[in-house]
Design goal:
Helices cover 37% and strands 25% of the residues. It is α+β, with helices and mostly antiparallel strands. Strands 1, 2, 3, 4, 5, 6, 7, 8 and 9 form a nine-stranded mixed sheet that branches. The N and C termini lie far apart (48 Å).
């Protein structure tokens, strides 16, 4: 168990799943949520890693990590804090914990954050971006990233952010291609012919062609 000033953080167990799933549904819109059975299968198979945060024996939140394996990144798939405990520093403590996990694994943490230039909830999206920036996250440039619709409705414009200890977040063109391929094929089960995948690759090509 990893003990912090306010939180105890431990590996999630089967008895944690109901509370985590309730928070998962409350904190994330349907087009950004995998089906519950997909999340649970990934945890049980070891593809994803669930960590649960508690304070005074009260469930406080969770972080779900997914190792992309073929690129040196671990995705922070989801991080959420219970609505009654938000804005008290618990999210930052949980984020520091997962960053340390990545450091010990000699890899970098990756985040998909909603792009504040799109959508109706600009202030909320900006707060999330600033939260990650305050905690060391930096934008990965030269990519217009789309989260494919997980409920078969519409994609979400995203910023990719990285927490790298050398602060070198600008990737080479082939590294960006490899990263997007890992996300789309491993996590979203979408092939090269996927329209959103192609749009992202086109944005990378355009960014590098202008240099």
């Amino acid at each position: 168990m990893y003990e912090l000033t306010h939180l105890n953080i431990r590996k999630g167990e089967a008895f944690d799943y109901p509370a985590c799933l309730d928070l998962y549904h409350e904190a994330f819109p349907s087009n950004e949520r995998h089906p519950d059975e997909v999340i649970l299968q990934r945890i049980k198979s070891g593809e994803s890693f669930l960590y649960v945060a508690e304070t005074k024996n009260q469930f406080a939140g969770f972080a779900l990590l997914h190792d992309l394996t073929v690129v040196p990144f671990i995705l922070l798939d989801y991080l959420a804090v219970h609505k009654d405990l938000r804005c008290q520093g618990y999210g930052s403590e949980l984020l520091r914990f997962v960053r340390e996990k990545c450091r010990k694994a000699d890899t970098s943490l990756l985040v998909e954050a909603e792009d504040p230039d799109f959508g109706d909830n600009r202030d909320e999206r900006l707060r999330r971006i600033h939260f990650y920036q305050r905690n060391g996250g930096r934008m990965i440039p030269k990519i217009n990233y789309l989260l494919p619709p997980l409920d078969q409705t519409f994609p979400t414009e995203m910023k990719l952010m990285a927490f790298k200890y050398d602060n070198q977040v600008e990737l080479k063109k082939e590294q960006l291609f490899a990263l997007v391929t890992a996300l789309y094929k491993q996590l979203y089960k979408r092939g090269f012919e996927d329209v959103f995948f192609q749009l992202i690759l086109q944005s990378i090509n355009a960014a590098y062609d202008t240099n």
